[in-house]
Amino acid sequence: MVGLDLLSTGSSYALGSALVWGTFLFYFKRYFNEYPSTVVLVLTSSFGIACYLPVTAYTVWSGTPLFPSAFSLTEIIFTLVTILIFSLALLTFYHAVSTGAVSVVSPISKIHPVFIVPIELFFLGTHVSVLQLFGIVLATFAVYLANYSGDGLFVPIRKLATFRPAQFGLLSAVLMALVNVSQRVLLHDIALTPQVWVLIKNGGVALLFVPIAASKWSVDVRGNLGTFLIAGLFIATGEHLVALAYATIPASVAAPLISLQAIIAVILGGLLLGEDHFTIRLFAALVAIFGIAFVTIPQ
């Protein structure tokens, strides 16, 4: 059971990361829209590592252990598998978006918090109250709404039966749910430090995506290195807050709060870029507020 202080601190980390990532998503769309997504992923991850290295270096200098006292081979393999699944989730999502309409794929790919609850319940024995569960559903639906831009609200769900890109979007959501639960295990149960996890997570993803990015590297990025550096600062900050959130509260509580980044991004897009469907984005934000209220109710 999650206590008041623990929940309050962990929720603050999760909501802080949502604010950082939501602003980054807006920044991404504003400045990187013309670059191949894999190229941006490799470069921003690399700059994120560079920006985060001083944090890890300070941890070493202060004498704080970076690894758990007993970090077994099984736990090392589990860490590497988590990075691999994360990379597969990103690849699956990019493939779904590239082969199908964003208005169908994006809402489905954002429902991963729904899958986290049964995974944590059955495999980790995590307790989530009925009110928190209701808040998780509300927050997840709010993210779905924020990513919706089509003719019918439930068209993406109905297309799951026949539309292959929608099915890939659902697969990416399931994979991301596994990643989020795995992060909770790594950072809480195994007690891997954020100072290590942020580096190896982003480093692993960058290395795995380099071959794909290299095949699409047809743009000159040297004139925008400062822009990528700012993106790296966003990533370093956001990943650190995400790691602190998963180390503090269950993934079933943290994930829907972190996913609210999508609402922040689309509201910024509506206000500053004049994007469509702004009214439904505001309604999604209102639903999200109610969801947050239920998720963060002290137990």
**Count of individual helical segments:** 13
Gyration radius over CA: 19 Å
User: What can be said about the biggest beta sheet?
Assistant: none
Query: What form results from the Cα inertia axes?
Result: globular
Fraction of residues in helices? over 70%
Uncertain spans = 1-6
Q: How would you name the oligomeric state of the polypeptide chains in this document?
A: single chain
Query: How many domains would you count in the coordinates?
Result: 1
Query: Could you tell me the mean pLDDT?
Result: 84
In what range is the share of β-strand residues? under 5%
Structural class: mainly alpha
User: Secondary-structure element order, as H and E?
Assistant: HHHHHHHHHHHHH
Q: Would you report the number of β strands? A: 0
